[in-house]
Design a protein that fits this description.
Helix content is about 30%, strand content about 25%. By secondary structure, it is of the alpha+beta class. It folds into 2 domains: about 140 residues, no CATH class; about 70 residues, no CATH class.
């Protein structure tokens, strides 16, 4: 077989990609400390080689393991593979909190009107990582962040942490920059009674081609 020729420029480009690929270990993050990740940390993803994108994607897949995004397919609707990261998230946090060398917790956020809008999350499923996710989420929401939530996580933020909610359609639409179908009081009387008058801010909006019921948590 004839030898494949590669130019010096191609070789240098290949070497730059290899050197720029990062793993969690390359960050030298202290154990138990939440550190910042940046969009450039996910550049030059190379399939077949373990890198930071794979490590964070594993956490995301675990956190969304019960979320069906289409028949028989589970995960996060926006990040379906490691190559999708950073997926438009400009503020990202991660931490390694156990004895193994891999990350255990991840959170992706964007800014909306100068405020942090909490988005995608990832964790390894351990009690410690899940608790860190819940504690940091509650703290960020109380410190000025916002998040659209539903289901179990919304219930926890409301009943255990007392995180406030947006109460009007105009405030929600102005903050999100999106139109919503207003519901108001939770449609299930059991939850409506449990949450009370301060959480009558439920709405629906289209996400990934389907309508999802949400509430916007955080201080107005």
């Amino acid at each position: 077989m004839p030898k494949v020729q590669i130019s010096e420029a191609q070789l240098r480009s290949k070497i730059r990609k290899i050197l720029s690929e990062k793993t969690w270990a390359d960050l030298n993050a202290p154990k138990g400390t939440t550190v910042n990740l940046y969009p450039e940390d996910f550049e030059d993803y190379q399939s077949g080689e373990l890198n930071l994108g794979d490590e964070i994607f594993t956490l995301i897949q675990n956190a969304y393991a019960d979320v069906e995004i289409e028949p028989g397919v589970y995960g996060n609707i926006k990040v379906r593979r490691a190559q999708d990261l950073p997926a438009g998230y400009t503020i990202m946090l991660a931490a390694d909190i156990d004895n193994d060398p891999a990350p255990d917790y991840f959170r992706g956020m964007k800014t909306r009107g100068g405020r942090k809008k909490l988005g995608i999350v990832g964790h390894d499923g351990s009690d410690a990582a899940v608790q860190k996710y819940l504690d940091e989420t509650a703290q960020m929401l109380k410190d000025g962040g916002i998040a659209e939530m539903s289901g179990k996580i919304a219930h926890i933020m409301i009943t255990r942490h007392g995180v406030p909610a947006y109460q009007s359609k105009s405030a929600v639409e102005s903050t999100l920059g999106k139109k919503v179908e207003w519901i108001g009081k939770h449609p299930d009387p059991k939850y409506a009674d449990r949450y009370g008058k301060d959480y009558e801010g439920w709405y629906e909006r289209g996400i990934g081609g389907a309508a999802h019921m949400k509430i916007l948590l955080g201080s107005e």
